Give the backbone structure.
Amino acid sequence: MRAFDDPSVVLSRTRILDRFLDYVRYDTQSDETSDTWPSTAKQLELGRRLVDELRELGLRGVGEAQVTMDQNGYVLAELPGTVPGRVGLCAHIDTAPAFSGTAVNPRLVEGYDGGAIDVGHGIVLSPADTPELGQCVGDTIVTTDGSTLLGADDKAGIAAIMGALEILVQEPDIRRPAVRVCFNPDEEIGRGAERFPMERFDCPVAFTIDGSFTGEISVETFSADKAVVTFTGVAVHPGTARGKMVNALTWMGKLLDRLPMGEAPECTDGRDGFYHPIVASGDAASCTLQLILRDFDTEVLVERGRRLERMCAGLMAEEPRLGVTVEITKQYRNMFDVLSGRPEIAERLEEAVRAAGITPRLEPVRGGTDGSRLTELGMPTPNIFAGGVNFHGPSEWISTRVLAQSACTILNLVQLFAEYSLTKTKGIRHGRSPTHREPGAPAAGDLRAAAVAR
Ligand SMILES: [Zn+2]
């Protein structure tokens, strides 16, 4: 393997920075209230641009001659391999609805001196608030002008993939499997995997380039369920209600009060899961409470649902005229449920980071990624850092050195997956035990312990 460990080589030999500065100027904000595909038509403009750039690089289509974007806004391309095998690289086109992505005006701070950066509009970045800045003295830092987000999430991921592709095109002798690329819309509103062209993409393993600072890799996300609890009371005129009325709202309040406060998002971090009430609606006769349930351990998550059901059964035992139903639906599953049975994937990923001269940091994601869903659908898809810091707001910034390190990691990774193939995993079933494993593979707990020990 030829190790890429010098980000300055990527910066000088590719257009990675120019591309990044170009991509962030496209307004690609997604919209969770939209029911079109993609959620906003403006994402298609950057999609078309990327189709052009992939063609210019000489990539071909996937399942067709030319690189194209499908009707849902997914851009697919392939760089043929020099050896058998396939590996997928994914990044998302959209930016978060949480903050404006209109007229992004990126600013460059060259030779960062370690002090505070006044980016404008009252936004000041300093190593005191953002310790990562302290690790970037001497780097070129790209910031916003304080009025928009930057969109390094995830245009840095797109630029890192394009930069790596440029090097691979320049160096046809590097041993590599076919590299398939997917740039997808609507990750920020949780729909990125929904219309993912899985059958056409057809990779035994893929990576989202959508993480934050240098060295960060993720093979674990939350497992997630949603619960809808419906309370049906007895409606009576309040003037004559004594002994007759059962107020659904009152009983919903009792349930809220009985949720363990220590297991709320505001009281948990690290590896702890939670109950999180998100929407309440209705009236005294009938009302509904929506909650999201989260845990890294899928078995514990399922038990959370059962505990909620027991609490509701307890309310009905106290007031037999009250009706309470609980409907729990699966949202996504911890990718580690699958990856624990494929330990070689995380091992190669860590090796790729180390070969880039970086210490890998295994960060469990307290949320889901497109990769959680893709992994569940049968394509193991861990996440790799792209460089951006302070996502989804005007304080977002990136060091171009770290951006290039992401490209280095991709170049190492692609080589490590030369001739890699694996039998398709079937995808996991609801409630599957996280300790499920292939014969001979280490138990989930073993690999987790190993990850912590590192
Ligand atoms: Zn992202």
